[in-house]
Amino acid sequence: MTIVNFLIGIGIALFGFVLQTSIGGINRKIVGRMQKRHGPRWYQEFLDIFKLLSKRAVSHGWIFDFGVIMALGGIVGTAMFMPLTKDILAFTNNGVNYDNFFIFVYLLAVGMLGMAMSASGSGNPWASIGVMRALTTMLAYEVPFLIVVLTIINYSGQSSLTGIMEFQQMAGNNWFLIAMPLGGIVGFICLMGMLGKKPFETYIAPAEIASGPMVEYGGKQLGMLFILHEISVFIEVSLFVHLFLGGAANIFEFLIKYFAVYTLANLISNVNGRFKIDQVVTFFYKWPLLMAVTQAVIVIYFGWVI
Amino acid sequence: MASIELLILFLVGAGLIAYLLTKVNTFLGSIFTIFAVMFVFVSLAAYGFNMNMDTVVNYLPGISFSQTYLGFYFAIIIVFVYLMVSFFHPYYLNEYKYKDSYNLLFLLSLAGILGAFYTDNFLNLFFFFELIIWTTMFLIPQGKSREAAVSYFGFSVAGSVAMLIGIFVIFQNNGNSFDIATGLAALNGTNAIFVFILFLIAAFAKLGSFPLHIWLPIAHGNAPHPFSPVLSGALVKLGAFIGVLALIRIAPATGLFVAMDLPIGQYVVALLGSASIVFGTLMAIKEDDAKKLLAYSSMSHGGYILVAFSILNGLAFAGGFYHILAHALASAGAFMAIAAVARATGTTKMKELGGMIHKMPITYLAYLVAIISMAGIPPMGGFISKWLIFQAVINKGMVFVGIAVFFGSVGSFLYVFRPLAALFLGQEFREYKGVKEAPILMLIPTFIIMGLNVYTGVFPAGILEFINKIIVELGYTGITVSTYAINGSNGILNPALISLVFAIGVAIAFVIFIVLKKSRKVDLMDTYTAANFVHDEHLLHYSVDFYAPLERLYEKQSSWMKKFYTALAEKVKELGKLGKYLFMSKNVATTLFWIVAIIIFLLWGEVL
User: Fold this and answer.
1) Rounded CA gap, B412 and A138, in Å?
2) Distance, in angstroms, between B331 CA and closest chain A CA?
3) Helix or strand (DSSP H, E) at A294
4) Stretch B119-129: mean pLDDT, rounded?
5) Which residues from A are below 8 Å from B378, CB to CB?
6) Within a domain: residue B5?
7) Interface membership of B377 toward A (CB under 8 Å)
8) Chain pair A-B, CB pairs under 8 angstroms
9) Same structural domain for residues B200 and B331?
C-alpha cells in the first residue's frame, strides 16, 4: 500500500459522489417528465448541497456533530474500497484485492450507526422513531440479501467483489441475475429496501414523521448528510451491479449498468405507495426470504445453475 | 516460575485476608482484592503464554495439574475480566448486606477458575466447577433477588449433574481413571454419543443457550452491578470450554451430512446454536432493562460460539475462539458502563433514564466502543470473529444456520442501539442534573477495555497466531495469518487497512465539518415539535417500547419458553407432592406398605 492507493480511494469516493448526484438529478428530471412536469435542472442536487453547506446551522450538543462526522467518515471509507471495474480499485497488492464483500455491509453500518446516534442525540422523538424504523427496515432486508450473497460466495468461492465480477465474466458463466434468477429478484427487492425507495420508504416518510432521522438537521450537518446519502446510494447500487450484473469490464459499461439499475429502482418507487413498518418486516420475511432460501438450496445442495 | 498450586493457595489466603480487611474497611479490602487479582493476572501472563507454569503439586491432596494452550486461553481471559471488574468493588460493596464476604467469595471463585482450566483430572474439574458455582451462588443474591440465585444454581446444578454422569461413564470406559486426555481419547461408539450429549447439556446450561437459557436474564439482570460483567464476560465461557471438550475432543462418529460434510450431532448443535441466536436477539429487542438486554445478547453470542465450534475446521474454530475473547471484552465493557450508570442513578430501566451522555461522556464512549464490537462492526474485535464465522458458515453452505447467523448480526444493531438511544442519548432528565462522571478508579478499567476492543479489531494477527496453537493442539490445521491480513477460505481481510481507511474517512469528514461555518448551540428542548408547546423533557424522550411495531409481530410467541418452564416447574412440584403423599403420609399403614413394597422390590431376584 502506498499513498497512491489511498488517493485512488479518495478519488473513487469523490467520483461516486459526483456520479450519483448527477444521476440523481437526471432521475428527478425523468420523474418530472413522467408526471408531466419539466422537472429541475440536472445539477439541481449539487446546488442544494452546496447551498446547505454554506449556511449557518444549529447544533444540539457534541454528539449531534460527532455522529455526523462519524457517519460521513464511515461512508467515505466504505466507498474507498469500492471497485468500479475489475481493474479500477484502490486497494490491491500483488494481485490480492482487499475488497471483501463484508467490508461493504459492515463498514456501511458504522456510518449508519453514526447517523442514528446523531439523530437520537438531537433529542427529537421523531428522529428516534425514524431511527427505529430505519433499523427495523435494515433487519428486514438484510437477511434475505445476505442469504443470496451466501449462495453467490459459496458457488463462486470468492468473497471479494472483483473476484465475483471475474467469475461472472469468465466464458461459460452467466451473470448471477440470470444464473440465479430467484436470487437476482430478491437482490433487487433488497436493493429497493437499502435505497429507501418507495414501498420501503417508511423511515423517511416526510408526511408522517417529519422526515424521520433528518428532522432536526439544517445547514452544514444536513449538507453532509446529503453527501452521505449520495455516496451510500453509490455503494449500494454498485454492489448490485457487481454482484448480479457481472460487474464491468470498463468504466462505460459500469456507467450504463449503474444508470439502468438506479433508474429502474426510481421508476418503480414512483408508482408505489408506502408500507407500514410492520408490513415491511412481514413482506421481507415472507417471499424474498423464501425465494432466497429456495435459490440457496437449489444452488448449494443440487448444483443447478443456469 | 509460577506454580498453579501456589497461585490457588494464594487466592484462598488472600480471600481470607480480604474478608478480614473488608470487615474493618470496605475500601481497604477492595483495594487489597484488586492487588491480589492483579498478582495472579501478572503471574499468568508472564509465564502462561509460553507454557512455563509450574504444575507440580506439593500440598493439595488428590489434585493434579497440567497446562494446555486451550486452558490457558480461557484462564487468561477470565482472570482479565475479574481484574477489570475488581476496580469497581470499592464503590459498590457498601450497598450490600453481606459485604464482608463479597471479596472472599470473589477470590475463591477465581481460585476455582484457575483450577478448572489447569487440571488434568475429571474429578478435579468437577470439584473446581462446583467451587465456582457455590461461591458465585452466594454473590448473586447480594444484588437484590434470591430468585436469581436459585435459578442460576438450579440450571448450573442440572449441568453439573449431567457432566458428573458423563465423567462416570468416561471413568468406567477408561479403566477406572479420571485422566482427561486419555479419557476423552478412549471414548467410542455409544458411550461417546452418550457422553457427548451429557457434556453438551452441561455446556448449554453454563452458556445459557437455548433451550437452557431461562436463568441467564434473571441472574444477569439481578446480580450485583459489578458482578454482571463477570457472569457474562467470564463465567458463561465455562460452558464454551465444556462445549469444546464435547464438540471437538469427543466428536462422536455419527452419520454424516454429505452436502455439508458435517456429522449429524454437530449439525444439530449448530441448529440449536442458531435457535439460541434468534431467540436471544428477539428477546433482547423486547427487553426494557438494560442489563437483561445485555444478558439476552450474551445468549445470542453463546449461540455464535456453539455454531463456530460445531463446524469442524480450523477457520471456524479460530472464529469461535476469537469470538470468546471479543465477546468477553465487549460484554464486560458494556456491563461495566451500565453498572457505572446504575451507580450514579440507581436504576437500569431504560424508560427511567435519558441523556446520560451529557453527564458521563467517558462511560458513554466505553459503551459505544463495546457495542460496536458486539454488533460486529469494524474496527472492533467482534468484526474479526464474525467474519471468520461467516466465512466458515458460507464455505460449508449451511443455509439455515446462515439465516440465524445473519439475523443475529443485524438484530444486534437493533438491541445494542436501544440503550444507546434511550439511556445515553435523547433528552436530559432534570432528576439527574446532579449526576457526575464515574470516579477515576472506575475509569481505569473502562479505558483499558476500550483500548483492547479497538486493538483486537485492528491487529488481530498476534492473537490469532496464539489461537492457531490451540487449534493445532486440538488436532486441526490453523488459519493463515500474516502481519496485517487474515486469509479466510474464500477471501482475505486486512483489518488494519479497514481501520486506517475508516480513520481517513473520518478525517475527511472532520475537515469538511471544521472549515464550514460554526454552528449555533441550542438547547435539547429547542426542537421541532410541530408547533406544540412541550414543557416537560420526559414527553420528548422516545424510549418506552422502542421497537413496538416489530415487537408486536412476535408478542404472542415470546412467552413460549417461559410458559414451558413454568409448566415444567408445576409438574415437578406435583411430582414432589405425590412423593410426599405416598411416602410421608400420616397414615402409618401407607408408610408401612411402601416400606415393605420397596424391600420386596430391592430383594427381588436375590432372595425372593
Assistant:
1) 11
2) 19
3) helix A287-297
4) 88
5) 103, 106-107, 110
6) no
7) yes
8) 266
9) yes
| Cβ-Cβ contacts under 8 Å, B488 against chain A | 159
- For β-strands B520-521 and A58-59, DSSP reports them as parallel
The DSSP 8-state label assigned to residue B438 in this structure reads P
Closest CA to B405 of B477, B310, B486, B479: B310
Tell which A residues from 115 to 134 touch B, by Cβ distance under 8 Å.
116-117, 120-126, 128-129, 131-133
Dig out the grid coordinates for A52 from the structure.
446547505
Profile chain A (306 residues) by mean pLDDT over runs of 10 residues: 85 91 90 88 88 86 87 90 85 81 86 86 84 88 91 87 87 83 91 86 72 79 89 91 86 91 90 85 90 89 80
B506/A220 touch (CB, cutoff 8 Å), yes or no: no
The distance of Cα A273 from the centroid of its chain, to the nearest Å, equals 21
Assess A135–B contact: CB distance below 8 Å, yes or no: yes
Domain span holding position A186: 3-302
Beta carbons of B28 and B20 less than 8 angstroms apart: no
* DSSP secondary structure of B144-196: S-HHHHHHHHHHHHHHHHHHHHHHHHHHHHTTS--BHHHHHHH--HHHHHHHH
Which residues of chain B lie closer than 8 angstroms to A121, CB-CB?
A: 357, 425-426
How close A93 comes to chain B (CA, Å)?
A: 11
State how far Cα B92 lies from the chain centre: 22
Q: Are residues B585 and B459 part of one domain? A: no
Percentages of chain B per state (helix, strand, coil), in multiples of 5: 75, 5, 25
CA angle B3, B6, B12 (to 5 degrees): 145
A56 touches chain B (CB under 8 A): yes
How far is Cα B263 from Cα A253, in angstroms, rounded to an integer? 46
Q: Residues B93, B23: contact at Cβ < 8 Å? A: no
> In one letter, which amino acid is B523?
D
Cell triple for B293: 438486554
Instruction: Give the range of the structural domain holding residue B288, as residue numbers without chain letter.
Output: 192-208+239-546
Inform me whether the C-beta atom of residue A302 falls under 8 Å from chain B C-beta atoms.
Answer: no
Note whether residue B56 is domain-resident: no
| Alpha carbon B422 to chain centroid, angstroms | 24
Question: pLDDT band for position B274 (50/70/90)?
Answer: very high
Same domain, B572 and B484: no
